Amino acid sequence: MVDETLIVPGQEVYFMAAFTISLENGSYDKLDNFDSFDVIVLGGGPAGIAASTTAAEKGHRTLLIERLGFCGGAAVSGMSGTICGLYNSVEDPEAAQPQQIIFGFAERMRRALDIENGLTPPQIYGKTWVATHDCATYKKVATDLLRTAGVNILYHTEMVDVVMEDKTICGLILHTRSGFCKVRGKRFIDCSGDADIIFRSGLTTTKGNNGVIQNPSMMFKVGNVDVGRYLAYWGSDTISPPKVVDKLEKRKELIRKKVWLFPTVNPGEVLVNGTKITGFDGRALDVTNPVDHSEAEQFSIYQAKEFFKFLKEEIPGFTNAYFIDYAPEVGVRQTRTISGVDTLINNDVVTAKKRKDSIARSSWPIELHYGSKPKTEWLIDDYYDVPFGSLVPSEGHNIIVAGRCLSAEHEALASCRVTAQCFEYGRAAALATDVSLSANLNYQKIDGNQIADLMHDEGYSEGGLIF
Fold first, then answer.
1. Which of 358, 390, 334, 361 lies closest to 454, judged by CA?
2. Within this chain, do residues 281 and 251 fall inside the same structural domain, yes or no?
3. Could you tell me if 263 and 123 are in contact, meaning their C-beta atoms sit under 8 angstroms apart?
4. 297 burial class (0-12, 13-18, 19+ CB within 10 angstroms)?
5. Does residue 122 sit in the same domain as residue 166?
6. φ, ψ (nearest 5 deg) of residue 425
C-alpha cells in the first residue's frame, strides 16, 4: 500500500496529457481527464469482461485495466481454449444430449462466438461437454462487447500498488509504457485471478490446501492433423482413453499421464492440453513467486515439445502434423483465494447444495490438477449453487472480487473456477456494484438474495430461461 503523496506529480501530469482515446463507435470517455471512475475493474479475463461490460451498461463510468494487449485471460493468453461449465454432467454422454445449465453472460459470450464461427459444437469431456473456441475470435468478440458498452480500457498496464485513505481503497497505482500514474475509483472489482488488489491492500488471502496449489499447464496448437484418423483411434471423448494413458506411462520424460485433445473450428487443427509444469528439479511451483513463474515458462517449452514428439510418434493422424505455437503464457489454475463473508466448501459441491443467494450453478467436476493424473470427482445429473457472499471479502467495504480468487475451499475451487461460471461471477459483481453505488451500501450489507434475483431478471437465453 502507498500514500498518494509518494506519486511524482510530473510523471502523473505527463501521463494524463499523453492519453486521449477517440473512437468512432461507442461512448468512450477521453482519458485526458484521467482522474476518477465510478468502477475500476482489474483484469480482462472472462470475469473482467463480464464485470466491466455490465457495469458500463448500467451507466457507470468504468475503467478496465489489463496487463496484456487483449482480453480473455487464461482462456486466450493461456490458450485454455474451451468454455467449461456450460453443460450438465451425465453417466454416459455418448447416449445423451448436452443440456445447458448456465446462461447469463456466459450465454451471451457463447452466442457471440458461435455467430462469428469461433466455437465448436459441444464436445464430450469425460461425463460432460465443452465447447472449444478460437482465441482470435475470442479477442474480437470481447472487444466488440467492451466497445459497445463504452468501457474505458487500458491495455499493457500493470497495477503496482493500492492507494488507501482511512483504511479504504480509493485508488490504484498503475505502470504503463509512459510511466506511473494514479487512478481513483468509488468501487473496485478485482478480476485479476490472483486477488491482486485484495493482497496489496493487506486484506486476508490464502493459498490452496495449506499452501499447496494446483499446477499450471502449457497449452499448444498443432496443425495439419488427419483429424478423421486421429478420432478413429482416440474416440469421441476428448480425454485420453486407457490405451493412450498406457503409452504415456512408458514415457518418463512426460510428467503428465492423462491428457486432453480438442479439435478446433479450424481444419486440421488440434488444441493440446497435455503438460504438467514443475520446476526443473521437479518441485511444485507457486506462480505468485516471480522466480517460480519464470521457471514455469521455461520448463513448459520443453514439456510441450516432448509431448508433441509423443503425438507424432504414437498417435495416428499426427505423423505429418506441425507445431503451430505455444500459448503466450502458462495457464494458471489457482493462486490466492480471498476470505469471504461466505465460502463455498468442498461438501457444498459433492452434496449439490442449493442456495437462494446463488449467483451461478455448476455441474463441473472437482478437477484437481496435482500429481501425474488429475483427480476428478463428478456430479452426475445434478448441480450445486455458488453463493454471492463468496465474492465479498470479509474486510474492505468498497471492493468485490470475481473469478478464480473467490472464497472457496481447495477442492471446491477445483470445480467452481471454470470459464462459464467466471462470466457469471463478473456479472454478479457488477450488479452488486450497481446496488452498492445506487444505495450507498458496503458490499457486506448487500442482500445476496437480491443479487440472485437480479441475475435472473437481467439474463440472456434463447428459450427464456434466465439463470
1. 358
2. yes
3. yes
4. middle
5. no
6. -60, -40
393 and 457 belong to one structural domain: yes
Question: Which residue shows C-alpha cell 463441473?
Answer: 364
Q: Are both 85 and 142 inside the same structural domain?
A: no
CA nearest neighbour of 361 among 339, 343, 394, 388 = 388
One domain, residues 191 and 95: no
Instruction: Quote the pTM value.
Output: 0.90
First vs last C-alpha separation in the chain: 38
| Vertex 341: Cα angle to 44 and 333 (nearest 5) | 40
**What is the rounded CA–CA span in Å between residue 424 and residue 430?**
10
Could you give the angle at the alpha carbon of 245 between the alpha carbons of 241 and 246, nearest 5°? Answer: 115
pLDDT tens-digit series, residues 345-393 = 999 999 999 999 999 999 999 887 665 556 788 999 999 999 999 999 9
* 464 and 394, same domain (yes or no): yes
Identity of residue 218: M
Left, alpha or beta for 395 (phi > 0: left; psi -120 to 50: alpha)?
beta
DSSP for 37-61, please give it. Answer: EEEEEE--SHHHHHHHHHHHHTT--
Find the angle CA(268)-CA(76)-CA(377) to the nearest 5 degrees: 85
378: its cell numbers? 463428478
pLDDT for the residue numbered 149: 98
Name 399's bridge partners.
188
- The alpha-helical segments, DSSP class H, found in 259-408 are 290-314, 346-350
The count of domains in the chain is: 2
Tens-digit pLDDT profile for residues 117-168: 999 999 999 999 999 999 999 999 999 999 999 999 999 999 999 999 988 9
Residue 467 pLDDT > 70? no
Alpha-carbon distance 271 to 219, whole Å? 7
* 299 and 441 both lie in a single domain: no
Give, to the nearest 10 degrees, the angle between helix 104-115 and helix 135-149.
Answer: 120
Distance, in Å, from the CA atom of 80 to the CA atom of 45, rounded to the nearest integer, reads: 12
24-74 pLDDT per residue, tens: 333 333 344 457 999 999 999 999 999 999 999 999 999 999 999 999 999
Provide the residue range defining the domain that includes 219: 76-133+213-326
Do 295 and 150 sit in the same domain of this protein?
no
DSSP annotation string for 110-150: HHHHHHTT-BPPPEEETTEEEEEB-HHHHHHHHHHHHHHHT
Q: Residue 439: which CATH number?
A: 3.50.50.60
Grid look-up 517449452 returns: 301
